[in-house]
């Protein structure tokens, strides 16, 4: 049974060691932020950090992760305060959201290595496919997140996790009600 650290917690997977990490995370650990996109490593929707390196979890087996540290989108920042998450909201670089977790992970890995990447470095480090086409905003997002990491800019764009029940369900008058 493969043992690894997932989001700073020791985990032992009671699964075939050759199972892709993606399925261990989604099916056994219930960490569904890591998305299944193509299953062959082309889209990047399943990107996670493995020992700080952005890797496609559909291409890495649980056995290959034995003893390693894995960070998913859920473990990157529980309160959405990571500079990439903040910049994604501020730059409106989220459309449908399916590719967003993988993109955030890839950008976070890049900025951990280099908080001031060039446009070419950003394009090379974030190979993720986005069918909505957020690419121009994505460049601005990573540049802005870099400024935040370098403490050249302060930003608090993303809302706190969770929503107050009063804000979630508003009373709406019945359609057949007479005024």
UniProtKB/TrEMBL annotation:
User: Record's Pfam families?
Assistant: Fer2, Fer2_2
InterPro entries for the chain: 2Fe-2S-bd, 2Fe-2S-bd_dom_sf, 2Fe-2S_ferredoxin-like_sf, 2Fe-2S_ferredoxin-type, 2Fe2S_fd_BS, Beta-grasp_dom_sf, Diverse_Oxidoreductases
GO MF terms listed in the record are: 2 iron, 2 sulfur cluster binding; isoquinoline 1-oxidoreductase activity; metal ion binding
The EC code for this enzyme is 1.3.99.16
Q: What is this protein called?
A: Isoquinoline 1-oxidoreductase alpha subunit
* The keyword Electron transport belongs to this UniProt entry's keyword annotation: no
Q: Which UniProt keywords apply?
A: 2Fe-2S, Iron, Iron-sulfur, Metal-binding, Oxidoreductase
SUPFAM superfamilies from the UniProt entry:
2Fe-2S ferredoxin-like, CO dehydrogenase ISP C-domain like
Domain 2Fe-2S ferredoxin-type, which positions? Answer: 2-76
